[in-house]
Amino acid sequence: MLSPKKQKFVDYIKDFTNQNHRPPTFIEIMKGLNFKSLGTVNWYIVELEKDGIIERVKGFNGKRALSILESHIANQLPLLGVVSAGSPIDVFDTIEYVDAPEVYCKPNNFMLKVAGDSMIDDGILDGDYIVAKKIQVAEPGDTVIASIDGEATLKRFYVGSNGIELHPRNDNYSIIHIDEQDELIIQGKLVAVIREY
Amino acid sequence: MLSPKKQKFVDYIKDFTNQNHRPPTFIEIMKGLNFKSLGTVNWYIVELEKDGIIERVKGFNGKRALSILESHIANQLPLLGVVSAGSPIDVFDTIEYVDAPEVYCKPNNFMLKVAGDSMIDDGILDGDYIVAKKIQVAEPGDTVIASIDGEATLKRFYVGSNGIELHPRNDNYSIIHIDEQDELIIQGKLVAVIREY
DNA sequence: ATACTTACGAGTAACTTACGAGTAAATTAT
DNA sequence: ATAATTTACTCGTAAGTTACTCGTAAGTAT
To answer: Are B60 and B100 members of one domain?
Structure first.
């Protein structure tokens, strides 16, 4: 298990790589993480390589902006947990990174695994993976990950005459009406569905 | 992963070739990219050839045509066309490459766009993208891209008592029975579905 | 001759690596 | 309870390499 500081370090590299389509240089890491010395950056690199987390392409790189971990680290999104029909979101302790299409690999995106069949009429099946984007406000018609009083679920977001409604897309489930006292938090909005056969 | 400068170089060659229907000469590259020396251009060519990105073919006038090898393209797959319910596969003239998760980016994989709703009960919707793998023989239960007498379609593959059957997954469509004289070619097998919202 | 590609030598800035030393917190020893 | 030791990180700088650049000259096919 990585220390929080080391975790932050590798997260920075991943985010940078996804955004810029290349790994950062030592100097970029130094500035991005507010270190004052390249020695610190180098210390992390050496440590993480010892830990087997990252890998340098060649033994020695001289000038090489591309030394750290190459494609292994790019085009991946964190798989945060499982979101299911009505039960709470199951958040993974150790966040795993899984491959995703490059276009979706943005800093505020994450992935979840779907459990249950409440969205079956929208073609979202049990076991599918979804890419979601963190948002605060949803538009009517959006498919959102919403948590009500701490329980997260995947539903369609609508505004009815009596306030916010969360619609499943399966006739066996019923519409959830949000009361004043319910605490509704929009966690994210559906960006893509990926199903593996 | 290519360095940014090398990437820019191959992008230039690609763009030039697309626009002028021929690859650029060294001098054209030099001017186009504001290099002051042919040596620089040559250095890139040699490097990129070493990296397996481009290839030189003999032309006329001591000319060598440069061609970009598409195969190396990172984390992308060719989008070959549209496959629909019953009508023939619509093959694109110019093959476009689209982002795909790295795990699916294998030499024999390709992508298609789905038209129609014949597989709706399997959660494959109109407009979805599918990743398929070229195969010759299908297993019962596989979802396949099959062409019958030249017309390709996305269906489930089964073997019934009267021979091969292609099942749609929508009650409004009926099962296709393959006769002896029908020419059935399995083009590929469904690997993944990607839907963008 | 013309139009282009290849080859070679050398330079430079960008970048990585090595090394020595320091600090604050946690762990162990006394 | 206090002192000694380790652990996990941080800093600064100098030295080492390479990615990329240039200029020029020689080669090759029409």
So the answer is: no
Of the candidates B126, B152, B155, B161, the one whose C-alpha atom is nearest the C-alpha of residue B141 is: B155
- Taking 3-state DSSP, the helix, strand and coil percentages for chain B, each rounded to the nearest 5, stand at 25, 40, 40
Helix/strand/coil for B18: helix
Question: Domain span at residue B115?
Answer: 76-194
Q: Given an 8 Å threshold on Cβ–Cβ distance, is A102 in contact with B75?
A: yes
In this predicted model, what pLDDT tens digit does every residue of A138-185 receive, in sequence order?
Answer: 999 999 998 887 677 899 999 988 888 999 999 988 888 888 777 888
What are the C-alpha distances in Å from A65 to residues A8, A24, A29, A55?
Answer: 20, 6, 11, 14
How far is B149 from chain A, CA to nearest CA, in Å? 27
CA-to-CA distance for A24 and A31, rounded, in angstroms? Answer: 10
> A110 and A44, same structural domain?
no
Number of compact structural domains in chain B: 2
Asked if A191 reaches chain B (Cβ–Cβ under 8 Å), the answer is yes
